[in-house]
Amino acid sequence: MRNYNLKIKKNQTVKKYIILHNDFFDSKNYCYRLTQPNASLELCIMLLGRKKHSMKIQINVIHEAPRTKSFIRFRSALFDNFHLEAIGRVIIEKNAPGSETFLEMRSLLFGDKSKARIDPILDIQNNNVKASHAAAIGRISEEDIFYLRSRGFSKKQAEKIFLKEYFMPVESPTFVKPACR
Prior knowledge:
By secondary structure, the protein is mostly beta strands. The chain has one domain. The protein is about 10% helix and about 55% strand. It has a five-stranded parallel β-sheet with strand order 1-3-5-7-9, with no helix packed on it. A five-stranded parallel β-sheet has the order 2-4-6-8-10. The longest helix has 13 residues, at about 155-165.
């Protein structure tokens, strides 16, 4: 397992962009702690998984102080026989009123053998916060690829079109600028 830990302090904004692909680690654990007032985090993790491989990713964001903000976006595109388990957990502690968070986790599957399990978890211990999440797993069918192939694109070009549109950014909440471009 590979662990990554970071404390974010008073009035500090951290923007992290992480791009993953098949690598030597089967498990990754990211932990970000917003330890002082007005700390903020923008985190974007993108994964492109190919071949027969399994990976577990855990993302933990802990709001420990008042008026902290986090925007977390996880997106994966999985091919072949790639299996993914991704857990995103945001904890807003009791002593963190006025905090805001948005957690988005999405996975796009190509082919019949790729699999994903994603779990966005919000653990809210204070009622004076704004917190939301989104999650989705979708599969690109051979029919979808065939449609683009019938328009003159090769299979590889069709997959690239889907990937480009999938990894394009969407507008983020008003409290944070977009994390993925």
